[in-house]
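FAQ: What does the model actually see?

It sees only this:
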Amino acid sequence: MASRADNIASNLNLGNFAKATELKQRIWFTIGALIVFRFLSFVPLPGIDPVALAAFNSRASGTILDLFNTFSGGALERMSLIAVGIMPYITASIVVQMASALHPTLAALKKDGASGRQKLNQYTRYGAVLLCIVQGYAVAHNAVAQGFAVDTSWLFYASTIINVTGGTMFLLWLGEQITSRGIGNGVSLIIMAGIVAQFPNFIVALFEGGRTGAISSIVIIGFIVMVIALILLIAFMERAQRRLTIQYPKRATQRGMMQAERSYLPLKINTAGVIPPIFASSLLLLPLTITNLVGSSIDSGSSAYSVLQTMNQYLQHGQPLYMTLYAIGIIFFCFFYTAVVFNPEETADNLKKNGGSIPGIRPGKRTADYLEYVLTRITVIGAAYLTLVCVLPEYVIAQTGVPLFLGGTSLLIVVNVTVDTISQIQSHLLALQYGDLIKKAKLKGRMR
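And it is asked to produce this:
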């Protein structure tokens, strides 16, 4: 059943967009900031040989570097100033979020309000800087080991670490500016822009294959239908909620007893978001990445080399074992991450302190048990949905042999960020519409 706010939003007058001067300024600022991000992805790090780098990229295809390259918008394969993208901050944010749910001191900070959140954000930034230094050293060491570094001295290591750290911190600042002065979540928009930037290459390759006959017309139509169906499914499931009715006792006022208040506790079907497929794919791609990075230093006749080669053979994209382990990993991380970010006992305790209760359920432990029961059931649906969205493209790639970079994780990020940004634009237009209604009401009051 639609709420009153949903009904108002459905009657939103898009003609107010022409009057929304501040909204248009925010949108133009966001577009300008994303253009700056794209420019930076083409500025190379000092001391990189482009010919040797291109040869390395062809060898490293299919490894975990492809996943990082997707999120950086191709900056990693070009070894630009923002080669590691915004991923160090995302990783640090996930670690701090999980630690705040497990560590008592950080959990107390999380409950501390605005000051506690500010402290946790500070820890996240410190962690991002530390990860940037580590990843910057890894980028420099990999460049030297793979032979696409012109200079192999300590100066190259120092300049790479400084440039990579500075590039990521600039992206973080740019994302914060988009959030405060633009529209949407800045960090999410930067990740989405990096993914969307590769769409033209994929579309050109797909239709070029159809023109030359390498890809049949039926396969191309099937790809388009699959992508549209997955987008619709993601848009529906990401907004799907299980609303639990919360009832508050009657309150006494000067005019007498008021009616008991009712509200809803929304539980998302997909509480874990895009974390499960990222974790699962990263773990499965580790053996192939290790082989490509250190394979030359391992004796080809040793048992370790044969084990790595066997693992790589069975864990290639599209292999039945890879898809099976991928699905199991997504399901596991769905339940694990949901258990970390949502605490039924804490939620039940907060409801009890505020006088709220679920009708027919006793406050306290019974409420916590009921919340855990409902959350487990909807997480099963969310895990099945995530598994379908992420494994279906892998299966299609395996059956058709067409390289499809647009995986389920990329689609999840793009659709989620797009829906969130559109919702914020809708909120700005709704606020403008409310402002016009208030002005008209005041004008009518004066005329009387």
